[in-house]
Design brief:
Helix content is 34%, strand content 26%. With 355 residues, the chain is an alpha/beta fold. Strand 4, helix 4 and strand 5 form a beta-alpha-beta unit. Helix 4 packs parallel to helix 5 and helix 8 crosses helix 10.
Length: 355
Amino acid sequence: MKIQVAIIGFGRMGRFYLQEFQKNPKYEVCYICDVSPVCRDEARRLSPESKIVADSDEIFADTAVRLVVLSAVASDRKARIEQSLRAGKHVIAEKPIADTIEHEREVVQLASQSDLFCTVNLYLRNAWYHHTIKQFVDSGEIGDLAILRICHMTPGLAPGEGHSSEGPSFHDCGMHYVDLARWYAASEYKTWHAQGVRMWNYRDPWWLQCHGTFENGVVFDITQGFVYGQLSKDQTHNSYIDVIGTKGVARMTHDFHTAKVELRGVTQTIEEEKDFGGKNIDVLIELMAESILTGKRDSRLPSFADAAIASEYSWAFFNDSLEHDLPVKGDLGILEEIRERRRNMTDGYGLLPRK
């Protein structure tokens, strides 16, 4: 029997979920909920077999629904998670799991008291390339893990374009890399120093670099910003991870289509290229399906606690940057040029669905 699932929030991420659920024979999307009439019309077009609703009460009352996906705004998630757990439904949530650190902690506590399976879309944990690197590191091929260098810069979402409910760029996007570094280090953050730039005279730093240490002595630096050539004729990006050990290295780059892994250990040199995999939602929902069907939570599913920790430290790093010199480069006129260009682009980085 298929797992009946409801999607609450049918914006960009909600549509990604629908696409992957429709490919997986273990699921049936029985409800799609959104307050926007435009989004509901799009849901009817893309999933005519689903019941499309504006009010989620019917979803929580329907005992056949076993899994709820929460992909609406962050300020909505805590209440929806509480409703889901009260109604006896498993949960997949987008990150962050709530709109404040305090609410995130409350959600973690709620989940810890429930036998239901709750997970969050920290999609990098489900990427084949990170698992390949992690296994190589764990094998001892690069010696002791010493340094983690992570960079992700694209001409993605501009300030004011879809971030309001999830915070500035380094929280909305950067928390993925804050979580990833912690996952690799298998330790907790100990020290940090962050430097930001207020690109285009926007109120928040839209580029941020943070470096520091973990409690086990691993050193990290994380660079993130949607500041990478927004007005260049031909857009590009710079995304990589460098994992440096006492004896060897492992690294990855990608072009959003293909990911390339290079492993240079003491006995092996391996190069591998595969499909990038996008948001890896297919992996996430398969892990959740197996957990629900077997009654045993898959250890690879990220926890709400993982998400809350990543959120809290990404805010800590962001706030640390505000305590230091914060240069301004560019002006709001350039920012408006960027927004106008993105409003009219049909092929670009992180474009939002057109209303």
